[in-house]
Amino acid sequence: MSEMLKVCALDLEICVTHLIHINQNKVVRSIAPVAAQKQLCRQAIKLFAHYGILASPERDRDSFVIVAHALSLKADFLDWLCKENLEIQNMYRADTQTIEKCLHYTVAVWFTSHCFYSVGKALVKGPLFLETDMETAK
């Protein structure tokens, strides 16, 4: 018999999706826009984890989405947006598709920060990649 583990509880009525626009005019961002987009997403997840946000890059290189409680994003979040030259392009009610996408990306970022890496459909513990002895790695 299998058992389900409850990871989190979301109330769709009070969750809001923020579409964040990235100003690509900065020299560093214009050279590697996808890397900049993913870095900002990871940074948002790390900085505002205490708000319980979920985030994910969008297909275009100029934006990413954040799903959060409607009232949870405070002045420090708005200050971060200003500092990073980002702006909230759009706000709308969270839907299950956006939450699923953001949850998948946020969990992957969390695993990576704890030295687990996704290889295909498996998770591999990080220090294995740092082994110099190939016999140990086999």
Automatic annotation (TrEMBL):
DUF4708 domain location: 20-132
Family annotation (Pfam families): DUF4708
Source organism, top-level taxon: Eukaryota
Protein name: DUF4708 domain-containing protein
Organism: Cylicostephanus goldi (Nematode worm)
